[in-house]
Structure formats: C-alpha cells, structure tokens
Amino acid sequence: MVTLEGVKRHYRVGGQEVHALAGVDIAVPQGQFAAIVGPSGSGKSTLLNILGCLDRPDGGRYCLDDTDVSTFDDERASDFRNRRIGFVFQSFHLLPRLSVLENVLLPRRFAQTTQDDAELEERAHALLSRMGLAERLDHRPGQLSGGQMQRVAIARALLMKPALLLADEPTGNLDSKSAADVLELIDEVHGQGQTIIMVTHDSDVAMHAERQIRLRDGRVEHDSAA
Ligand code: ADP
Ligand code: MG
Predict the structure, then answer these.
(1) Low-confidence residues of the chain: pLDDT under 70
(2) Pocket test for ligand 1, best of 11, 40, 55, 214 (most atoms within 8 A of CB)
(3) Spatial contact of 196 and 165, defined as CB atoms under 8 Å apart
(4) 219/67 Cα distance (integer angstroms)
(5) Quick check: 47 and 210 in contact, CB under 8 A?
(6) What is the DSSP letter of 6?
(7) What angle do helix axes 146-158 and 176-191 make, rounded to 10 degrees?
(8) Which ligand 1 atom sits nearest the alpha carbon of residue 43?
(9) Which of 72, 132, 206, 224 has the most CB atoms at less than 10 Å from its CB?
C-alpha cells in the first residue's frame, strides 16, 4: 500500500519558487497497477523520484506498507529503496560489461540482504526464463534487442520481490511490437499481484493500467479511481 498525503516539493530557481508538487494525495492499494500521466512539467518525474526514495517531499507524508519513508535520512532511504523498490527506466540502465544474469543479480550487491546467494540465483534464473531469456544468460546487453533489454531490466527490478515496482516510460524507447510485448509482460507481473506505478505521457500505454492519475501543475487534476 502506497500512501501520499499532502506531498509537496518545491524548487527555488533564481529567486523564483517552482511548486513541482503542490500537495498530492494518492493512495495505491496493494496489487494495483496505476499510471501517472500529465503534460511535461506537471510533476511526474518529481513524484516518481519521491516514490522511489530518490528524493524526499518537503511537505506531507509518504508511507509504503506502514513505513513512513518521508522522514528517512539518505542512508536509510537507499537501503529501503534497494530492498523494497524495483525500477524500470525508459533507457533500461543495464550495465554493458555484465552478462544478462549478472545484471539481474545486481540488486544483491546493494541490498543488505539475509537471503542466501543460491536462493537469489535461482530466482534470477526463474525470472529470466519467465521473460523468455533462458538461453541468453551469458549474453551482454549489447547483443540483445531493445525489447529483450527491457525484459532483463524488469527481471532485475523484480529480483528482491519489491513492495512497489516503478516504471518510467518503460516502452518509450521501443518499437511498437516490442512495446506491446513489454506491456503484456507488465500486465502479467501485475496479474501475479505486483503493485505497479508507471509514468507515461502515452495515453494508450496508460490505458493498460487499472487506474489513470493525471497531474497538472503539481496537483492531481483527474483520478480515474476517484
Ligand atoms: P514532468 O516529469 O511531468 O515533466 P517534473 O517533475 O520534471 O515534470 O517537473 C515539474 C516542475 O518542477 C517543472 O516546472 C520543472 O521545471 C521543475 N523542476 C523539476 N526538477 C527541478 C530541479 N531540479 N530544479 C528546478 N526545477 C525543477
Ligand atoms: Mg519528467
């Protein structure tokens, strides 16, 4: 369960205050797939950074599964992020010198985890099989298509069984066929109970989600669940 209450974030740009988020209230129940849409400058990236514990609100509260993360210092925020949040980006963010399997196992390096290595490796294999990449474990990202790279990134994002999967324009760099495949995969991950929040400017992509939340000028302008 994701709860944002009166979340604000402002920037000061040369004497001027920009209210990137001007008081946002959103509750996303466990297992929901929600899309955040809105024009450029409406606050989508600012919101995603806060949801991903990469940034903190300067007003209001953000709770993820009963943990108030808005008060965390940088170290606690990054530990929480590594263990509880999965990210999928438009440009994949895979490390080119690592194999597909090593990329998927990367979160293990950063998370202070008590899970043993064999268990995580088994999970990485299972995720990659599910993504149709079982034969590609030793390949480098550069040997894959865009759609395959995004599937590797999704497997990596799911490795630690995150409470929340965040996707930032996950199909933005893909041709329409690969985009459709990746959306189908995200639907499938959602079908297995994963909570997902996806930012997109593409209304067709947003319609894949159960719920569409539209931002404008740092506020929720429309929420299909409201
Ligand atoms: P979106 O992702 O919807 O395009 P952003 O969250 O990036 O919107 O930006 C929201 C508003 O905050 C915009 O007016 C933008 O110019 C401003 N903004 C975002 N990040 C910064 C920053 N680091 N410094 C100053 N202003 C920023
Ligand atoms: Mg943005």
Answers:
(1) 112-114
(2) 11
(3) yes
(4) 24
(5) no
(6) E
(7) 20
(8) 6
(9) 206
